[in-house]
Write a structure and sequence with these properties.
Blueprint (H helix, E strand, L loop, with lengths): L7 H10 L14 E5 L12 E5 H8 L3 E3 L5 E2 L6 E8 L9 H4 L4 E5 L3 H15 L13 E3 L6 E3 H9 L8
Antiparallel strand pairs: 1-2, 3-5, 4-5, 5-6, 7-8
């Protein structure tokens, strides 16, 4: 993925919004980058951002991990923040990557970012589990998720529902 020149105001806004700490590790901002939740969006507004260590930012941009929108919980001790479980792609779950090594479980982002998290998670799933999305050219039976009502091929539904369990959270 090519690096796109970024707006310095975007970084400054993200630094302030996340109190100069990585949203996943609490690492100091000196070692962090302002990451776009949806990189291809080219949306340099603060709701499309989070502060991540350089390594975790790279892994995120490679679709190795993602916050899971259906696991959102309001952070009681951080005003205007939501906490999400994270998912690591099955392709990378056994590798010794920092996302696995340190067993990061949850990420906290500003509540205003939820719609970007939802869109980014779809991109993550599409990149790692394309069988869930290949409906159009298939003669295989198409079924609907009982939680979010999205349509999937029958063999992709079970994987999807594991991450979409909490009815009404989508």
């Amino acid at each position: 993925m090519d690096k796109t020149p970024r707006n310095s105001a975007f970084r400054n806004n993200i630094l302030k919004a996340f109190s100069y700490k990585c949203t996943l590790t609490d690492m100091n901002a000196l070692q962090c980058e302002a990451a776009h939740i949806i990189p291809r969006d080219r949306n340099d507004t603060a709701p499309n951002g989070m502060l991540l260590s350089r390594e975790l930012h790279y892994l995120y941009d490679q679709y190795i991990w993602s916050p899971i929108p259906s696991t959102k919980q309001v952070c009681l001790y951080r005003k205007n923040f939501i906490s999400y479980d994270i998912e690591v792609s099955d392709k990378y779950s056994d590798l010794e990557l920092s996302i696995n090594k340190y067993k990061f479980k949850r990420i906290e982002v500003k509540a205003w970012s939820h719609k970007f998290i939802e869109e980014a998670y779809i991109d993550f799933r599409r990149e790692n589990y394309p069988e869930e999305f290949e409906i159009e050219d298939s003669s295989e039976e198409v079924v609907e998720c009982e939680y979010c009502h999205k349509k999937f091929k029958k063999n992709g539904l079970k994987k999807h529902q594991n991450s979409c369990r909490k009815k009404g959270d989508i």
